[in-house]
Design brief:
Blueprint: H1 3-17, E1 26-29, H2 33-47, E2 53-56, H3 59-67, E3 81-86, E4 90-91, E5 97-98, H4 105-114, E6 115-122, E7 136-140, H5 145-154, E8 160-161, E9 163-164, E10 167-168, E11 176-180, H6 188-196, E12 201-204, E13 206-207, E14 213-218, E15 221-226
Parallel strand pairs: 1-2, 1-3, 3-6, 6-14
Antiparallel strand pairs: 4-5, 5-13, 7-11, 7-12, 8-11, 9-10, 14-15
Helix pairs in contact: 1-2
Bound molecules: ribulose-5-phosphate (5RP).
Length: 228
């Protein structure tokens, strides 16, 4: 798919997602290029009178929302979110996701966990039969680096510490990320619970049972995936 077509799909699905936002909602704002388009569209609705409070899932999204005049509530202060809109790096029709390509996985997972309706928006390149071609991001506390590395090696996942612009990537939470390769993942739920048990792992990029609906643009169509 050309970049232009991909961007058109991202915009179409972002425009669709914001039609689900109601006056008075607390709205979770995702992170990444697709979520950014939704946030920009939402700002237009707010300029036209929509009243919402938004909860950002990263420092980048917070800065974007502030620049667009979107009223904010800190993630840590939100006890419930009516609707959240976020992107994904990969998804299956069973609503399993890999997220965290942009490194915001922990706060995105908190946001999704707080959300009554969690909408994932993607272009058509993100749909897979089985998760795993995209490397699974794992955020860990640096004090546990060697321990987490060993634990991930035991799971044969070839952990590689994320580097960005020639520097170790540091998350908004002051942690680092291992990108891991589990091959194609037969059972994301089992893998998610194995990763949850590793001391020092703050969050991993496997999202299961956290999504209400996935909206995927495919050409001029918007296809919706919900729980079967
Ligand atoms: C950031 C994420 C993003 O949602 C994911 O990387 C998708 O980004 P994009 O919409 O730019 O493809 O999980 O941590």
């Amino acid at each position: 798919m050309s970049n232009e077509n991909q961007n058109n799909e991202k915009l179409a699905v972002a425009e669709k997602a914001i039609t689900f936002v109601n006056d008075g909602d607390i709205v979770g704002l995702g992170t990444g290029s697709t979520a950014t388009l939704a946030i920009q569209q939402l700002a237009k609705l707010i300029a036209n009178g929509l009243k919402i409070q938004a909860v950002p899932s990263s420092e980048a999204t917070k800065a974007l929302a502030i620049s667009l005049g979107i009223p904010l509530l800190a993630l840590g202060e939100a006890s419930s979110i009516d609707i959240s809109i976020d992107g994904a790096d990969e998804f299956t029709a069973n609503l399993e996701l890999i997220k965290g390509g942009g490194g915001a996985l922990f706060r995105e997972k908190v946001m999704a966990s707080l959300s009554k309706k969690s909408i994932i928006i993607t272009d058509s390149s993100k749909r897979v039969e089985k998760l795993g071609a995209f490397k699974v991001p794992i955020e860990f506390n640096p004090n546990a680096e060697a321990y987490v590395f060993k634990a991930l090696q035991k799971l044969s996942s070839h952990p590689v510490k994320r580097i960005k612009n020639d520097k170790v990537f540091v998350t908004d939470n002051g942690n680092c990320i291992f990108d891991t390769d589990f091959g194609l993942i037969d059972n994301p739920t089992v893998l998610a619970s194995e990763l949850d048990q590793i001391v020092g792992v703050l969050a991993h990029g496997i999202f299961v049972n956290l999504t209400s609906v996935i909206l995927m643009a495919h050409g001029d169509e918007i296809i919706s995936f919900t729980k079967k």
